[in-house]
From TrEMBL:
Residues 7-57 form the PAS domain. PANTHER family: C4-DICARBOXYLATE TRANSPORT TRANSCRIPTIONAL REGULATORY PROTEIN DCTD, TRANSCRIPTIONAL REGULATORY PROTEIN. It comes from the Bacteria. The keyword Oxidoreductase does not apply. One of its GO terms (biological process) is regulation of DNA-templated transcription. One of its GO terms (molecular function) is ATP binding. Residues 151-380 form the Sigma-54 factor interaction domain. Keywords: Aromatic hydrocarbons catabolism, ATP-binding, Nucleotide-binding. This is HTH-type transcriptional regulatory protein TyrR. It comes from Exobacillus caeni.
Amino acid sequence: MKKTQKNFDENEAVLHSLKDDILVTNLDGTILKVTDTTSSIYGVHPDDLIGRSVYDLEQEGVFTPIITPLVLKEKKKQTIVQSTREGKKLLVTGVPVLDKDGKLWRVVSYSHDITELMKMKSYFLEMQDEMDRVKNELKLLRDQNFNNEGIIAKDREMKKSLMVANQVAEVDVNVLLLGESGVGKTQLAKYIHNNSPRKNEPFIEVNCGAIPQSLFEAEFFGYESGSFSGAKSQGKIGLVELAEGGTLFLDEIGELPLEHQVKVLKFIQEKSFYRVGGTKVKKVDFRLISATNQPLEKLVEEKRFREDLFYRLNVIPITIPPLRKRSADIVLLIKHFLDVFSKKHNRERELDEAVMQQLLNNEWKGNVRELMNLMERLIVTSSSPIISIEDLPDGYVKGKNELASFQSGQQPLKAILKQVEKRVLNDAKQTYKTTTEVAKHLGISQPSVVRKFKEYGIK
Ligand SMILES: Nc1ncnc2c1ncn2[C@@H]1O[C@H](COP(=O)(O)OP(=O)(O)OP(=O)(O)O)[C@@H](O)[C@H]1O
């Protein structure tokens, strides 16, 4: 039977003036009073609430769970989160009301709509999960980068370089790594970072030779929105800003054109910069390591490299000897890469002694990178478990006449030249890291290198 709210007394008037929803039940759970807000929250007319049992309303799904039995059981104030039929989330507080003899008499409950709050909470939790995932991924990537940092060094000169690297790792001094392409300058820079107090912060590598000149400033310092045509509308953070707290590694610093050298020098001195198109000075805290395979002092003499910048970078120079002068390292590196690539490609391989002899006498123009690429190639291409001389590419076998095959054949000159070109490009690809370097060493333009790689299917 439904009861209606007639004859408002003073208490009722107060009750209805409240903006919160109030719901009063007796000890059976029958609803005695509600405010207007209650009915709008549950989407039920007051007449359809008064006189009804909260147990029935729960069964019907109007709201769930109900608080009355909890308050009756605990005999003190309780708070729960309730869902309504319309999908709202309510924070409901129920209070026991005692009669003049101190016995339980009524239960009064009131609620706050927390739907938005709950949505925010679930969004927040999702974001937190996402953050954890990204953090783990980042850690994994950093670990992958640094796991193999156990630098192989048996050669006396190489050991000396490593010792200096160890000594300077602790201190925030500028280090300049010198050595031919592929000797392990980047590897050593990572090693220094990973043994420094900044090891848990970013290691940001900037290849000064690989960034197109016109984009250098925007890539290096970042830019503000709309600072030049083609810029992203929201602006972009620069590489130097990413290095905050960590190590900034300027690789191939000798390739930096003079016009950029002055800006880089100012930035290194002041440890502050402006984004392109920016008006606010930005500070960044980093440790600087730079590297080059160029004779910087000679470039200074030729006025192609600023002397002041050279002295800034060259506080602690560390030279890494070329691989051909580190025969003790060659043997160890061969074993190391045999192991790494055997595992990677799931193929157990060993080197025939004659192959080892050939490799020990090789010139290794591309140094450790060349050796590493050759080992992977041999493991992938050799069909038997023992890699023999026949498996070695032509350039690695002393005394083998590379042109013999062409001389004995009846091919036209054009076809022979193409084959030679392909071989030269292939070798250069193994030796150098970027197409810019390949272009420089072969004396052709970088777009030509890219075109020829494509033409010969060199990947
Ligand atoms: N001593 C070493 N032990 C193990 N791996 C090495 C060692 N030195 C170099 N490598 C590996 O050889 C490859 C080339 O090394 P790295 O990139 O450090 O050379 P680089 O001198 O920086 O070359 P570039 O001048 O072209 O930038 C990398 O994959 C590196 O991990």
